[in-house]
Every structure is written in structure tokens, then in C-alpha cells.
Amino acid sequence: MSERSSILMMLFIVASSLIGISSIYQPVNVETESQNQSQSQQQQNTGLSLSTLMSQGSPLLGDPAAPVTIIDFSDFQCYTCARYVKATEPLINQTYIQSGKVALVFKHLPNRGFDSMGASLAAQCANDQGKFWQFHQLLYKNQKPIDSGWVNKENLEKFASQIPGLDKQKFNACFNTQKYKSFIEQDIVLGSSFGFQDTPSFIIVDSKDGSDPELLKGAHPFPSFKTIIEKKLAEIDK
Fold first, then answer.
1. SS3 sequence of 105-134
2. Between the chain's N and C termini, which has fewer beta carbons within 10 Å?
3. Span 48-237 CATH architecture
4. Whole-prediction pTM value?
């Protein structure tokens, strides 16, 4: 065989090998697979009924008999969460919560900084005494840059002391023992199962059985919530 023939033969073998390899390693549509996995996870995460969430001890704002539930996954150090609390949550409260159509449940997703877990622990301890929403408002009203010390242990205890009717001794006992650490870790697992990484993130569901959850990620304006809530209410009324 001539030298030219040998070179041509080698090129043919290499080309054939590359074709074989490309047929094995077909490109994968990562986005589609991710979407399918996310949809599958969401379908599995039913059972988010209001009665279940209440029995677990999650803070609740509104009528337990409300037909629609908004589940809010937030971090007290998250500035977009503070924006939602100041601009959008009051409108949801006035329009739907006060009228008994919607109940709001808070779930902890403390992933913005090292001090975020402490803020969640303190807020859940305030919930023990029915003071969660007062504490919630106080933290967001006084929010400072992440991990700047504004929610260190000393300041969290000071915030608690500003809430009328809160038993400081009971609060400190709860907070110092990290009573609700495992509870908050379960909230984190639940949020992760829905693919929530950023805060705030929301699940809007039928309060009765938690069916057909609709997700909102980010500090959306009131009209975004209104569209989903009205859709849910119409479905329930059928």
C-alpha cells in the first residue's frame, strides 16, 4: 500500500470513530429536562393544605377557612422581601385577607446571609406567643445591609422587647435553645423541593387540599397575585 493510501485509510478510520462517538453522545435538551423535573416535583408536592400547614406551626395571617392560601418563602435579610412586604402585602391584605378570601402562611427560607437563620429562629419564637406578624413587620421596617449586625443575637432580643405583650423570658428561653431550628430546616427543604433559591417565592393553592399549586418567584407587584387569586377563586366557585 502506498504512503498516500495509508494516510487516506487512517483518515477514514478517524472519521468513522468520530461519527460513532457523536451518535453516542447526542446533545441533551437540559432546559426541557429541568422543566420536566420541576413539574414532576411540583406534582409530588401536593398536600399543602392550610390545615396541614397550621398543624405544623407555620405563622398564619387571615381566616383559617379562607378558600385560597398564599405560602410565602422569605428571608428577613432579603431587601426584595422587604419591598414586597411594604408595597404588595398590604394590598393583598386589604383586598383578600381581610375579606376572608385568602390566608397567608409564612415559611422560612433563610439563605441571604449568616445572620438570617437567627432572625428566623427569633421570629418563630415570637410566633409561640402569637406575635409573629408584629415581629415580622418590625424586622422588615428596620432592615439594614445583609450581615451588618442588625439581626445579631443582641439586636433580635431588643426587637422582641419592643413588642407589647411579649413575654421576654419565654422568648429568650425559646431563642437561646434554638427550639425551632429543625422546623426551619424543614421549611428550607420544602422550598428547595419547589426549586426556590431566591426570596421571596410564593405558592398559591386551594386551601382545602393544596391542589394545582401555582408558583411566583420574586417580589411581584399586586396585579400578578390578583390574577392568580381570582383564577383560583373562580375555579373553587365552579
1. EEEECCCCCCCHHHHHHHHHHHHHCCCHHH
2. C
3. 3-Layer(aba) Sandwich (3.40)
4. 0.79
